[in-house]
Amino acid sequence: MSEQVEMTNPVDLSVGGMYGHVFRRIFHISMFLIPVVYFEFGDSFSESIGLTLQEVVSSVILIAIFGEALRLKFSFTVFGQREYEANQVSALAWGGLAVGMVLLLVPVKEYAYPLIFSLAFGDPFMGEIRRRGAEYKQVVVYSILFIAAIWLFCWYFFCTPWWLAFIFAPVCAFAEMPRLRYIDDNATMLLIPLAGILILEPFIGLM
pTM above the 0.85 mark? Predict the structure, then answer.
């Protein structure tokens, strides 16, 4: 069996049809709030419950893993998920794990914001232009430009080195494109550029 899956219309496979698809997109975009909450309220919240901020992140990851294991045990999906996710790790779980790894490994605004924003906004953008019939080359060009704008936005507001936009815009875009059977693009779109950040970090020196 091939490890690649064919491209399908996500609306057709969404629990809830178009309403489920729209809900999934809105939920996905709302992930941009995660670094906002983490950096603005994380320290005070963790102190209030007697844990370090990293312990809170790890605890959330462990709870999410346990919850996903229960969902798979009973093979059910919820509104907005794809039907096939009843029997494999969901995009939500992969995304939660990947976001958690970003906050554990590069817990600074200069990296966390552009990485998570690229997933929160870039993935739905790519999915929608693809769903509307854009050709492969158009998807590549539009996606790289869109994600580069995200990284330059983070350069302006969060002091992310500007030149990283020219490296990680294409990395994030191409990391989303493989249609792997068991690893969702929510994971690859974060974990692949995260690996790149960790490799380049000795030369950047922000952490």
Answer: yes
